[in-house]
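re: ur question from earlier - yeah i can do the single chain one, its not a big deal. heres the input i used so u can compare w yours
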Amino acid sequence: MNFYKKLGEIRPNQLITTYGPGSIMDAVNDSLTVLDIEYWDTNNIGKEIRDARLASYMNVRRFFMPKTGGKEDIPVVSFPYYHVCSKGTCKFLFDMRDYFDMDQYKKNQGEVKCPKCGFPAYPSRFITVCEDGHMDDFPWRWWVHHGETSCKEDMYLKSMGNTSSLAELRVECNCGARRVMSGAMQKEKFAGLCCSGNHPHRPGAKAKICKKSVIPSQRGASNVYFTVTRNAISIPPWTNPINDIMGAQRATIETLVEAMGEEAGLSFAYQKYFGDKYSYEDFKAAYDRLSQNIKEFTELKEMEYAAITHHEDVEYQHDVKYFKAEEVALSESLKEYISRIIKIHRLREVRVLTGFTRLEAPEPEVDEQSHIVKLKCSSGEKWLPAVEINGEGVFIELNKEKKINQWMQIETVKSRSDKYEECYAAYCQKKGWENFKPRNAEYVLLHTLSHMLIKEMSMQSGYSSSALHERIYSSENMCGILIYTGAADKEGSLGGLVELGEMNKFLPLLKGALENGLTCTTDPECFMKNPTSERLNGAACHSCTMISETACENGNRLLDRALVVPVPEHEEMGYFRELVRDLCGIQV
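and the output i got, formated as tokens:
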């Protein structure tokens, strides 16, 4: 009979978005850290997810959606290591590793017992982190002794009042040293104490030398862990099943090519794995696609943009399992501003966890970020955890050829655009990033319009804003937004969102979004704001344009409703200025 009980439960999607390796999660009786993927059982990971395009960009062979419903699917370790006895007359503060018994820990469903009195102990709420992603216990002995010490006497964490205030918590050592926790969350108090270089999600690994400053935190703080993810919309011709076979046999094919030469190696591989189902031309085309070695995230978006805007072309129509699009006949009143609206009846997003950061959220499209702690595979085939999200969406392309190019020539818009480019460049340089994509007024217009529509859609479609996602396509050859929804490991959604692409519903939707953008409850403070390298927003706040962090691909940065609609003191900058008058009947 198995006496072990689960320490806790987690959904596959949460492993990618919230509780991935390196995070801290509260279990039934303890606080846990999910281990790095090199500690996972590679023979029992879960469902394989294939996306050859994303795999090429990530330089891995496979993606797996982690299993989370069985026994011991996800390996974890107790963290913080320091625990405090819950008995009011004891309050022993101890490192649970000194007394750990794995069998008892599992039988007690992760409950740690005080080694002195046997009462349940709870994990300390204090930890330390650094900007390079390291994490460790709070330096209790260093704190109570006001610096380095060789003392090994027992310590206690006692409450001197009835609140959880730091001023009412005191650390006491049997040697006589004592110190209240007031100030324990102030970085300056730890001057001279260097980071330990520890990664609790890699137990047994040797700590690296780290000279970064120690930053105190509470284990439940929102900035202790930020996932770093990359995603892609599955599109033809990459969704052709031949790509799945090619991906599965890629290592073998590359070995054959290396040993026999390209022509002979490919011919042998074709006859062995593909000859009974596909022509050599299809095989060679799939091989060439996988050999592209996609290096930048922007390349993924450019491919998606081409598939969406050319969805009626033959090469994009052979597979409707993951991608099905339909053009919408535009109203004459919109053609000056919007060139196309496309309903995406069926789409699949593959979202991959690549690592994490601490203290600051990562930039979504900057690949060069040194402070990212990347997931580490064990020796063998490279893989990463992922989820697939099946759903629907609406794609909107603005009229770049005519309206956008004219609008960008307006003097105040040019000035605002230059300001955004300058501020974003300073923001990236401050973080040490060299290879970043410029952000101008066109990007901010698209991003803000997306947020305004998401807010309106959440009221009209029944979806909460956190259930919707955006994808901004902005470059010299792209000017569109995709707003979509979906659910992990489901066949799709109910069609409520895609219906909003119909003109009889989109016009009221756009009208409501534009009207709501004209004013903000925090005006005039909101519309008077200008972008800076710290704030990267113009006329934007939580009352008017900011949405759930999970829905936004930019962390609610690069927003400015003054570029979308006419607002006081910036009337001429609004892209939809005349449409506000014609559609909404409002004189500006």
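The first strand starts at residue 24 and ends at 26. not sure if urs matches, ping me
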